[in-house]
């Protein structure tokens, strides 16, 4: 056992501090005022070769691979104060106390309040098998993130395993188990102070977190991280807010992609339609037509791997079964013309008798055996196969070549990376590692991320003007900058709604918020009627709304499969489609800051400890609280409304004080939504197809309070927004007896918005007057006349809303709504 219990020396080197202990040298880098890196390398080599980091303050052997994705920063200078028993390193926001005799780190804020502490005497270790450990104190902390896992949202007293597997039919049990991703990052919120911080372990070996679930009478309560190899190489990320932690984590590992609009509607998929004996293309077209007939339009289609099936049904990626799909180019073009593009399934395993096997073998493009002499062979779908080594640049180029020729040139706008967990049983199998050389134990978790990078590259190279979009089932830290993800092959069970919801929230707290689960479940028998209805009603708030199935009873999960609940599902989807302006604005913010679209209540209400363990409610963006019905046979729903603001029922505008539990009655139509005081939601009735339809009338629902908001739009398909071709409204609300709303447009995108219609909520009184740019707006008393008018205002008593409409002139506007006291007959009381 190698330990780091005694600090022998501390010295300042070029851009880091070198700490020497009895067991390992340690480097300490300060990247920003709020991010530092500590790396204990027991080998003493300190090799830098990362596919993950997009911000570095050191030379990295893979700088040329990441290219302009990576930025070299200078780091910062820090103050150092040596005392008898410790060194104190200080930035403008935190202090790091480095103990000498019993080496450990304690991080405090500038007032001396403890944020983080190593477990003194049991800090960083390496055992005789090369496994590394980092022990930290467990205080009154709550833990979130850890990538994709089952179990409770708050992982306090949980064990989390990061060992990606092809986890079909995984058990969404209360106990935390591994799924498909490897993201060793968590955020914690202290229950006493409400202070948030994060730890990201820059290690791709299989790992485990023990968050207070192990006890010893000889030590304080503790957590620890364990990895099967590599270094203890972590980045401490300061808060104090959760928003700041997530922002800084995605600053470090890459900002999420801006998803195209076609991914925001109903994404359909099933293995069944690609497994028909013939004419599967017509089956897909028929599916789209039936959806339109049912009032349930489809915006994209995941093309299952049956299109690559040989006569014996085994999958041969980059080949076509022309009996099932006689004309692939026509298939893609037809779907693109309908505004419903398809993204075809690809898999990185190549069967031994695959016609392209030798293409990869000729350049050592597979992961090799432990001796590095032959391609590594293991179980694969349909037989024995080898695995494409995406850390080999030659293999990447071959993959890109076939993806372009067989898929993209036929018309595919995006690709789906499936079964990419790299279940390789020989830890010592060899990977190219871009010429460095490495073993599968270290590199298998990174393979799907580099695969997604390669696919994004070939999409961009093939269509430079079109926004690349990739769907990936697996991935490491950093996957968010290449792909949307989902939680794989779940089951059609009631408990999977609940734990799937928590899984999405956890991924959002891991910097990978563009995530979802298969609505209705992927495997097992078809979902029962109520289950499908409730899952669809919950799923409209998922970042990825997708129904995908491979049912075991020869059925296909379709949103209209049960006549009795099709109206309720149709209504739910229409709510999502109406909110596309709001959702797309949230996704744009997600791409800028990492802020998740669907997030736990405590993300926005960190000062309210009552939110820390609530996992069946969430904030959908910064303005809407959602509380889906996710239990069978519910007749009432208990909902917590966080403290700090009032809340308004989305449908009736009934007002509730925050900081309380309420109980509402539940029927088949119930989809609980609450608008936050100070919140603004943009919506429209104009969108059925997000790729083809545009907002002409933008509705803006406001629960007035002094606040700032942004509405964002662009063409939703191309990269033109990067050159200023976007449309943004900066909205500043000042609320007093007169509510003043300043709206300032920016950007060069020619918006389709012709009219604005505001809904300004006031449950206490109607408006006295309204003005636009200091000109009085005409008032209507007759609702029918108001509906026909292009300019005017009306107080809607049924939902306590001042409705104001006016044309869009693409100029800055100042809207005023007076709620001043007005006594019509002059005898009112003061």
Task: Tell me what the structure shows.
Its EC number is 3.2.1.177. Belongs to the glycosyl hydrolase 31 family. Residues 257-586 form the Glycoside hydrolase family 31 TIM barrel domain. It is an enzyme of class 3 (hydrolase). It holds the Pfam family Glyco_hydro_31_3rd. With 830 residues, the chain is α+β, with helices and mostly antiparallel strands. Among the domains are: 2-253, Immunoglobulin-like; 301-323 and 337-466, Alpha-Beta Barrel (TIM Barrel); 679-818, Immunoglobulin-like (Sandwich), CATH 2.60.40. Helices cover 17% and strands 29% of the residues. It contains 14 helices and 55 strands. It has an eight-stranded antiparallel sheet. It has an eight-stranded parallel sheet with strand order 35-34-32-29-25-24-23-36. α1 links the parallel β6 and β7 (71-72). α6 (393-408) packs across α8 (447-462) and α10 packs parallel to α11. The protein is globular and about 85 Å long.
What is the CATH architecture term of the domain at 2-253?
Sandwich
Low-confidence runs (pLDDT<50, min 5 residues)?
none
Overall pLDDT, averaged? Answer: 97
Rounded Rg = 28 Å
Please describe the biggest sheet, giving its number of strands, its sense, and whether it closes into a barrel. Answer: 8 strands, antiparallel
Helix content range: 10-25%
> Globular, elongated, flat, extended or rod-shaped: what is the shape?
globular
CATH fold naming of the domain at 2-253: Immunoglobulin-like
């Amino acid at each position: 056992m190698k330990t780091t219990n005694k600090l022998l020396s501390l010295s300042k080197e070029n851009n880091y501090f070198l700490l020497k202990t009895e067991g390992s040298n340690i480097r300490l880098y300060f990247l920003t005022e709020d991010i530092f890196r500590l790396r204990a390398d027991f080998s003493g080599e300190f090799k830098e070769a990362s596919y993950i980091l997009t911000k570095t303050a050191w030379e990295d052997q893979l700088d040329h691979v990441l290219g302009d994705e990576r930025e070299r920063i200078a780091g910062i200078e820090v103050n150092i104060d040596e005392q008898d028993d410790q060194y104190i390193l200080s930035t403008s926001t935190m202090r790091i106390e480095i103990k000498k005799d019993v080496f450990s780190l304690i991080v405090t804020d500038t007032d001396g309040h403890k944020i983080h502490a190593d477990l003194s005497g049991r800090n960083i270790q390496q055992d005789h098998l090369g496994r590394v450990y980092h022990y930290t104190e467990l205080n009154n902390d709550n833990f979130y993130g850890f990538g994709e896992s089952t179990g409770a949202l708050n992982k306090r007293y949980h064990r989390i395993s990061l060992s990606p597997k092809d986890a079909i039919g995984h058990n969404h049990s209360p106990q935390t188990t591994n799924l498909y991703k490897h993201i060793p990052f968590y955020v914690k919120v202290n229950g006493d102070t409400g202070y948030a911080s994060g730890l990201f372990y820059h290690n791709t070996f299989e790992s485990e977190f023990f968050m207070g679930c192990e006890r010893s009478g000889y030590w304080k309560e503790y957590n620890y991280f364990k990895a099967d190899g590599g270094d203890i190489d972590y980045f401490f990320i300061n808060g104090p807010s959760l928003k700041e932690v997530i922002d800084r984590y995605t600053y470090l590992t890459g900002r999420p992609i801006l998803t195209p609009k076609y991914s925001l509607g109903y994404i359909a998929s099933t293995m069944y339609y690609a497994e028909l004996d013939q004419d599967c293309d017509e089956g897909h077209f028929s599916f789209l037509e039936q959806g339109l007939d049912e009032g349930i339009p489809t915006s994209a289609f995941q093309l299952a791997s049956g299109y690559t099936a040989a006569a014996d049904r085994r999958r041969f990626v980059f080949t076509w079964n022309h009996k099932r799909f006689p004309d692939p180019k026509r298939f893609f073009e037809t779907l693109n013309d309908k505004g419903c593009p398809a993204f075809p399934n690809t898999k990185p395993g190549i069967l031994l008798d695959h016609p392209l096997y030798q293409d990869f073998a000729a350049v050592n493009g597979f992961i090799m055996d432990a001796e590095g002499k032959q391609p590594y062979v293991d179980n694969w779908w349909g037989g024995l196969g080898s695995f494409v080594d995406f850390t080999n640049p030659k293999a990447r180029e071959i993959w890109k070549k076939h993806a372009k020729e067989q898929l993209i040139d036929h018309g595919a706008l995006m690709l789906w990376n499936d079964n990419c967990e790299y279940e390789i049983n020989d830890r010592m199998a060899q990977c190219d590692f871009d010429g460095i050389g490495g073993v599968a134990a270290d590199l298998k978790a990174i393979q799907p991320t580099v695969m997604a990078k390669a696919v994004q590259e070939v999409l961009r190279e093939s269509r430079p003007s079109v926004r690349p979009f990739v769907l990936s089932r697996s991935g490491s830290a950093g996957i968010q900058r290449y792909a949307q993800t989902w939680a794989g092959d779940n089951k059609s069970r009631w408990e999977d709604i609940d734990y799937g919801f928590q899984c999405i929230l956890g991924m959002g707290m891991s910097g990978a918020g563009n995530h979802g689960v298969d609505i209705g479940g992927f495997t097992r028998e078809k979902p029962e009627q109520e289950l499908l209805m409730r899952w669809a009603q919950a799923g409209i708030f998922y970042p990825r709304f997708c129904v995908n199935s491979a049912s075991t009873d020869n059925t296909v999960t379709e949103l209209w499969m049960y006549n009795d609940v099709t109206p309720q599902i149709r209504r739910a989807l229409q709510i999502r489609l109406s909110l596309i302006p709001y959702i797309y604005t949230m996704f744009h913010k997600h791409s800028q800051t990492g802020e998740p679209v669907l997030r736990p209540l405590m993300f926005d209400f960190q000062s309210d400890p009552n939110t820390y363990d609530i996992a069946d409610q969430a904030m959908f963006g910064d303005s809407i609280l959602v509380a889906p019905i996710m239990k069978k046979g519910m007749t009432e729903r208990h909902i917590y409304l966080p403290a700090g603001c009032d809340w308004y029922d989305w449908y009736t505008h009934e007002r509730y004080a925050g900081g309380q539990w309420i109980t509402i009655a539940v029927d088949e139509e119930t989809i609980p939504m609450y608008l936050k005081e100070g919140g603004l939601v943009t919506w429209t009735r104009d969108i059925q197809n997000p790729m083809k339809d545009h907002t002409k009338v933008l509705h803006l629902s406001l629960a007035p309070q002094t606040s700032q908001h942004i509405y964002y739009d662009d063409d939703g398909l191309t990269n033109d927004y990067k050159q200023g071709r976007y449309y943004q409204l900066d909205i500043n609300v000042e609320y007093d007896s007169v509510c003043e709303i300043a709206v300032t447009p920016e950007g060069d995108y020619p918006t389709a918005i012709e009219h604005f219609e505001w809904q300004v909520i006031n449950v206490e009184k109607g408006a006295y007057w309204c003005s636009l740019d200091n000109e009085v707006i005409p008032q209507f008393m007759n609702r029918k006349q108001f509906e026909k008018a292009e300019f005017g205002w009306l107080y809607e008593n049924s939902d306590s809303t001042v409705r104001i409409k006016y044309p869009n002139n693409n100029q800055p506007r100042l809207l005023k709504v007076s709620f001043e006291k007005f006594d019509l007959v002059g005898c009112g009381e003061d």
